[in-house]
Amino acid sequence: MAASGSMKAYRKAYCEYYPIVYSVLLSRLRNGDDAEDICQEVFIRFLDNFDSIESHRGWLLKAIEFEISNYYRKKSSRNDEAVDVAEFVNDINLAFENGFRDARIVINEAIENMENYDSEEDRTLFDLIAVYGFSYKEAGKYLGMTRWQAEYRYGQIEARIVDYLKKMGIKEVFDLL
Amino acid sequence: MMEKQGPQGNMKELLHKYRLDHPVAPDSQKRMMAHMGPMYRRILKRTGRHSLITGIVLWIYFLLRRYGIVITTGKAIIVTIVLLVFSLGGILAFFMLQHRPDSAVNRKGGVVDIRVDLDSAPVQPPRPVYALAIEPFTGEGVDRGVRTAAMKAIAGQLGALRGGSFSTIVWNRNTEGMKYRMTGSVEKSGDEMFLFVKVVDLRTSSIVYVAKEKADSLDGIPDACRRVSQGVAERVR
Question: Which secondary-structure segment (H or E) carries B213?
Answer without folding.
Answer: strand B207-215
